[in-house]
Amino acid sequence: MIIYHHSTDLKAFASSNPQDWLYAGFIPTMGALHEGHLSLIKACQKTCKITIASIFVNPTQFNDPKDFEKYPNTIEKDIELLTLAGCDILYLPSVEDIYPNGLHHLPKYDIGNLENLLEGKYRPGHFQGVCKVMDRLLNIVAPSHLFMGEKDFQQCMVVQKLIETKNLPIQLHTCPTLREKDGLAMSSRNVRIPENQRMKATAIYKTLTWISKNLEKKSPHELMDTATLQLLNHGFQSVDYITIATPNTLQPISTWAPGEPVVILIAAFLADVRLIDNLVK
Ligand code: AMP
Predict the structure, then answer these.
(1) C-alpha angle 194/195/201, rounded to 5°?
(2) Which of 34, 35, 40 for mutating ligand 1's site (highest number of atoms within 8 Å of CB)?
(3) What is the chain's pLDDT, residue by residue, as a tens digit (281 residues)?
(4) Are 266 and 241 contacting, i.e. CB atoms less than 8 angstroms apart?
(5) What distance in Å separates the CA atoms of residue 16 and residue 87, rounded to the nearest whole number?
(6) Which residues line ligand 1 (CB under 6 A)?
């Protein structure tokens, strides 16, 4: 695996391999890699000639400075995992390489209502940061395929919107969420859950499946209220949201007709760790 620290070197490599770059797939990450990330590498290898991953803990997308400070860093293990997975290129930039003109006066992106809903509402500025880093990364890497996880459902919608707004020739592949055996969605933040609280974390996926199974029996409102209590009773500190929504708008539904596609999304805190998950029905 080739490791590039500078965008100029990566761009030079890309322009000296134009044929391969027609089938270049990109997996942006913030490191502390797990099987979920590696599943994106595998998905990319099935479609693309060249697989490029990036590791960059993007300061502009953290609305909570403590979350940024505590973000896990396991770079040596990450490099080993990517090498073993057969990743071709790792882009490992500095903050200066991504933001050469500093972190201020960066462009503002129009992502419509996605900015005010769910993650947008509870993490003000988060998606602006995601757009800033993705705009820059997609410009540097210039892939034809992009692989992202459905775990970050709304993030995939935001990036798709960015691709469309900028008219980029990039196909976004949204890949399924990988889970631990007990259902907990894999996440870099899971290592911050204290051992004695880890069992409680399974309540998120149990709640998602409980809502999904009961859609025919109770109203979305009743389900959301009961589910919130369930999470709190299982030891969750607080619940940012539980919502049952239309997948292409993320607007909450007030009634559900059998067969109607919905996505159930949850964000909640356990032991000061903010966990998100979702289930598409
Ligand atoms: P992150 O390093 O958390 O920014 O994630 C990098 C990419 O991996 C994003 O596209 C995530 O949606 C994806 N990802 C994170 N967790 C999982 C998971 N459990 N299963 C599949 N993809 C994931």
Answers:
(1) 75
(2) 40
(3) 999 999 999 999 999 999 999 999 999 999 999 999 999 999 999 999 999 999 999 999 999 999 999 999 999 999 999 999 999 999 999 999 999 999 998 999 999 999 999 999 999 999 999 999 999 999 999 999 999 999 999 999 999 999 999 999 999 999 999 999 999 999 999 999 999 999 999 999 999 999 999 999 999 999 999 999 999 999 999 999 999 999 999 999 999 999 999 999 999 999 999 999 999 99
(4) yes
(5) 19
(6) 29-30, 36-37, 39-40, 148-149, 151-152, 175, 177-178, 185-188
- Annotated catalytic residue, options 5, 34, 37, 145: 37
Which residue has its alpha carbon closest to ligand 1 atom 10? Answer: 148
Instruction: With CA atoms as reference, report the closest residue to 188 among 27, 32, 64.
Output: 32
Other beta carbons within 10 Å of 84:
10
Contact 277, 205 (CB under 8 A): yes
**Residue closest by Cα to atom 13 of ligand 1:** 149
Measure the CA angle with vertex 127, ends 241 and 240; round to 5°.
15
Cβ atoms 78, 53 nearer than 8 A: no
Active site residue 104: no
Roughly how many angstroms between the first and final C-alpha of the chain, as a whole number? 38
* Residue 25 host element (H or E): strand 24-29
